[in-house]
Amino acid sequence: MTDAFNDHDERNVLAGELALRLLSPEEEVRARALQNTDPDFADQVEGWNAHLAAFADGIAPVEPSAGLWPRIDAATAPTANDNGRVAAFWRTWAIGATGLLAASVGAVAFLVAQPDPVVPPAPPAVVQGGVTRVATLALEDGAPILTIAYDTATGNLFLAPTTQLAGQDGVPHLWLVKPEGGVQLVGAITPGASSRLALTNILSGVAGEATAVAISIEPRGTTPAQDTPGGPVVASGEIQQL
Amino acid sequence: MAATLTRDELAVALGRTGLGDRAAFRIVYEATSAKLLGVCLRILADRQLAEDVLQDIYLTVWRKAETFDPARASPITWLVTIARNRSIDRLRSAAPMRKTTPVEDAHDLADAAPLASDILEHSDEVKRLNVCLSELDDKVRGVIRTAFMDGVTYDTLAQRENVPLGTMKSWIRRGLLRLRTCLDQ
């Protein structure tokens, strides 16, 4: 980069890059963390969103099919046991994933292929309220380093890291990337050792909504803040739903 | 079924949606779903996938409407930002399934689209953006527009334009800085 920007310009441009979604996954995780912790930067991103939304004026409207509203209406309707908003929260994962089905099945196949898997045999497809969310993460060279599966019914998070992570100079930590921006620390990962975590209520809510997961490498003997990686982000992957 | 609402009317409907008003939620849907599907379809290029994502978007709107602050954002900006980000998330999670569109073709698509803005109340914003974009070089204006319309990264833009990644970053970063200076005036 030969452009000589001052710090203010750099942050402003970074806010624009984040709003436009130009950044690589790793850069985006770092920028989202900044957005989550720095109100001024968050305001800059919001400012860009306001300006850039005007581009949408050049996009022709397309009427959705008549069946879409009834599905949304049903998914947000109140039930006997909740206020509708909660129902929508859970049903978000249970619908509308046709475009991801092939990729998700591939992710599960990879999960099963991991050596020494701790993940039990896949439960029957129909479990009450159970929707599994999966993600695979790889280093830049494509080497797989971690597969996760999250059971939204039980709050259990299954981790199957490979030994590839062991070569890193530091301790790998897992992060959830929130849909509205920002990240949430899950915890440290032991390379090569599969594990199962029962997430707390707060973490399980974030895990249910997260759009991606990421791995940072933190210096040994340190614990990063809950919402900001202290070390470099070495891998990330979108969460896909079954 | 597209209803025409003013910005203030849409903001009120969105605010009431945040309070759990299902009739208001329906009004928001009817006034904005065609515009948001246009945004999704522009990025995802697949009707079924775009409608799946649109369904997710309105479930998000139902859950998050209480966080909408009309003092901080226009309702359509808030909705378009959600729609675009959700579409991009889905695009990137299904990247191998995506066919690429040359930048030139993307310009044609964007320019050919009629500017039917039944709900975009921020016409001043549109004019200001267009004025400021007109001050940029054609190629820079084109790639920034494509970045928004197609939701693609620096890497993809560089490949499409067949230029080094550093060159693409330099074009856009300088373009964004000029754009922001102009927009803030």
TrEMBL record, chain A:
Cite the InterPro entries for this sequence.
Answer: Anti-sigma-K/W_factor, RskA_C
UniProt-annotated stretches for the region Disordered = 219-242
Name any Gene Ontology BP term: regulation of translation
Domain of life of the organism encoding this protein: Bacteria
> Domain named Anti-sigma K factor RskA C-terminal: which ranges?
101-233
Sample GO molecular function, one term: sigma factor antagonist activity
Example GO CC term: the record gives: plasma membrane
Its recorded name reads Anti-sigma-K factor RskA
Species this chain originates from: Brevundimonas variabilis
From TrEMBL, chain B:
- Which positions fall inside the RNA polymerase sigma factor 70 region 4 type domain? 129-179
Which family does the similarity line name?
A: Belongs to the sigma-70 factor family. ECF subfamily.
Name the coiled-coil region(s). none
> A Gene Ontology MF term for this entry?
DNA binding
Entry-linked InterPro entries: RNA_pol_sigma-70-like, RNA_pol_sigma-70_dom, RNA_pol_sigma70_r2, RNA_pol_sigma70_r4_t2, RNA_pol_sigma_r2, RNA_pol_sigma_r3/r4-like, WH-like_DNA-bd_sf
Protein known as = RNA polymerase sigma-70 factor (ECF subfamily)
Q: Which organism is it from?
A: Brevundimonas variabilis
* Residue stretches making up the RNA polymerase sigma-70 region domain: 29-94
What are the alphabetically sorted keywords of the record? Sigma factor, Transcription, Transcription regulation
Give the superkingdom in one word: Bacteria
GO process terms (BP)? DNA-templated transcription initiation
Give one Pfam hit by family name: Sigma70_r4_2
